[in-house]
Amino acid sequence: MKTFLQDLAEHVQAHHKVLDKVTLVFPNRRAILYFRKHLTTLLQQPGFAPEMLTIEEFIARFSPYQVPDKLKLIKELHLVYSAVMREHNGAGEDKLQSFSDFYFWGEMLLRDFEEVDKYMVEASQLFVDLSNQKEIETIFEFLSEEQVNFLKEFWGNFDEHPSANKEQFLRIWRSLESVYTNFSEQLLNQGFAYQGLVHRKVAEAFMRNEESEVSDKVKERELIFAGFNALTLAEEKVLTHFVEHFNAKVFWDADTYYVNNNAQEAGTFFREYKKHGVLGKTFPDQFHAGIQEKITNKTTIQVIGAAQPIGQVKVMAQLLNENLQNGWKAEETLIVLPDEKMLLPVLNSIPEEAGKLNITMGFPLSSSPMYNFVELLFDLQLSLEVEAFHFRPVMALLQHPYLLAITNDQTNTFRKTLIKDNLVAIPVERLIDLPPICKQIFVEVDANNILTYFQQIIEAVGSNAAINDLDKEYAFHYYSFINRLQLIIEDNIIDQVNRKKELKSFQRLFAQLVRAERIPFAGEPLEGLQIMGVLETRNLDYKHVMILSLNEGSLPSGSSKGSYIPHNVRRAYGLPTAAHQDAMYAYLFYRAIQRAESVNLFYNTETDVLGQGEMSRYLQQLIFESGLTIQEQVLHNTIQPKPWQEILIHKNEEIIQQLIKLTMPQGKRMGLSPSALNAYIECQLRFYFRYVAGIKVADEIEEDLDNRVLGDFLHKVVERFYVRLQQKKKSTIVEAKDFEKYEVELLTIIDDVFREAYSLSNKREVVYKGQRLVVREIVKRFAERILELDKTYAPFHIEALEREGLVYTAQIDHAPHSINITGIIDRIDRKEDVVRIVDYKTGRDELTFNTIESLFDREGKRNKAAFQTLLYALLYTESLPEGNSVKVVPGLINRKNLFDRSFQFGLHMQKELVQNAQPLMPDFKNHLKGMLNELFDPAISFEQTKNLNNCNYCDYKSLCYRK
């Protein structure tokens, strides 16, 4: 197989004896590397090489202007835009956009200016106010009626339906001519220009025949332009000038298949240039006919469809491995990735047999772990409220691989402590005792020092011995990027008054800039397996070509970059449109395969929910129009789901021993808890997973105001109120007068509970915002209502608060020893001969149950809150001396009944108030013992519940396939 650049090298070697008098101009630098290689192979003896330049380098020779970094250009554009807005629209400083907010619009604007100049459009005419219909009619006399109506409708709609974005768009549009003119002049006065402006100035100079300086630079040199396709108008003028006045040669890289076929969009530009008065004469009589040769020789092109991107990658890697073993050479093989997101999956799938790799695309900095790390730093600073960070970014940072490695897992230990304390807002002072790297991270940062903050942390991470070499490389590139950013963006870009809003805006800018950054892969470009993006394949030919992601949206790309210039206006002025892009990518597709001896093309068989992402039109053209021999193969994943099987856990000796441990006093645990027994009744398998197998649910901080969070606060507040009352009175008697002016005391207690819960300083006032404010108001309202009810019920005697240590001991047949059941009772109070067992609930638990038996019924709708409260009553009655005749009244105080003015404390059995639970206890104990006998019976396995309602909020439903 002879490549285009080999042909060119042979021509240069044969027709140009003095090579150092030759200048060759290529579309890109990669073509220069390969051409040099081919020319070196042909030369028999050492000598001077010809001069080789890219088109940008060649044009820049004739311009005195330097092209700055894009970021610097947009920064300058922002200054010009702001000045124009002040002058033309009377915008005050408060109405002007910050640089961060302007960047998106500025990038779009700069892109439009680039195209306006590269295609040499009359800017003053283009940038008139198109919303004025009369101006449209006079200025666009050459447009069709359809185009004029389109423009009227387009701009008319904008004015009829204003919005923030449309207003912003129109404001900029109406000032575009001034912005364009002032921006160009300002840059030129400073000795700078963007690339389009450089091209325009050079092309205009050539058109004016200002040749004296040009002649000196190309004097006695033989010029060759090679491998061009979709020229901008400025490039076309440059080539035309040198062909016409300096006898330059042009070598076109094309194939007769698409050049001579008007239906093929890939040949669009060549057919236009063939009609050109000057460039048309440079066309050869006959182009290369590689695709026709494939048709004639019945060369097979393999087209493979696979599900999802990863499916394509795995099939490609397998095919590559087989072919490398069968004789393919890695350096003669090209993998083309239209979708850059495929790079990492491809790199992870390439077989070792491939050896060296040459990757032209560069690794996206935004795909590195460092990007995620910096995003978390942004989120951390954005979450800061009243000297406290929101838990989400804190928790994410504490478990980030960088901090885990540097702190030797200390951050993970601290993270578990925060989960235990359920801190939604984590005070800065709570984080000061962490390792040094954390002290750098968890601090409040002045918004204008955010880049310095990033630099210091990235430097600390990148220089730490615990970080691997690859992550150090990421840190180096991130540090360099931020350093470059600091040189361009001045201080005080963020308004401290609107810190969060401005910081969020800057975060968007930062993310946008990072996405454009690439980490170059080190390697020898002429060796090894070649992995390239579509644009990098220009002028290069390989024996074996594999192209992935041949779907609409990838090739051709479905995403068009934004523009201020509508499609029809672009068409009218000769600016590139979507059709232009499609024709360019069609050419790159066909030229990638035109000389290849083997071609493998891959596409994703799965379209998205809107039907987008179907097979690429270029692939469909090959299959249905080309006449090529296509071998199609669609790969499917065969999925055969296994039939559902009920899960049964049989009780072996090990399980029995674990059950015995659960029911014996051990550490703080005195025996089985009401929660454990409720779990067993609802689902034996859930009980097994949690209490026997010890499968822990991943602890998380609960951000939502669930019953557990509210209940915990309420318990502590009410308990502390009565503890302080007892300490103050030195008595457990509660009287109505004790509730006079209790509000101040209650608020103080709530503050104290919040300080403990959120680890706040005792020296500072508690600031209530967000969740804290909501929790405080709910807890305050609940506590006030409880105290109002208690005031009405007074006088009474507090027997216990948060009572622990009460135990019920049961003897059962299948257990070798007695079984202990215990629990913590929220409150026990006594009034005369009535003892109340009070259970505070913040949910909407029912107070009614049908029978004692119903509380143990797995299949029916049971009242587990009533079961738990009666179990507390059992614990209390078991502690009473024999013959005691007190009335034990168990009951719930919850949000459903708390604010009911007709509320009467106690449970209801069959709608009758339970005024004494003691007569119910024998029946309750019998059912309880029966359940415990079942629990310890080796013949009865742990099984899944039949009541699927019990699965709705179960933490283990994914383990038993009941999602």
Automatic annotation (TrEMBL):
InterPro entries: P-loop_NTPase (IPR027417), PDDEXK-like_dom_sf (IPR011604), PDDEXK_AddAB-type (IPR038726), Restrct_endonuc-II-like (IPR011335). It comes from the Bacteria. Gene3D superfamilies: 3.90.320.10. The lineage of its organism: Bacteria, Pseudomonadati, Bacteroidota, Cytophagia, Cytophagales. This is PD-(D/E)XK nuclease family protein. Residues 672-960 form the PD-(D/E)XK endonuclease-like domain. It holds the Pfam family PDDEXK_1.
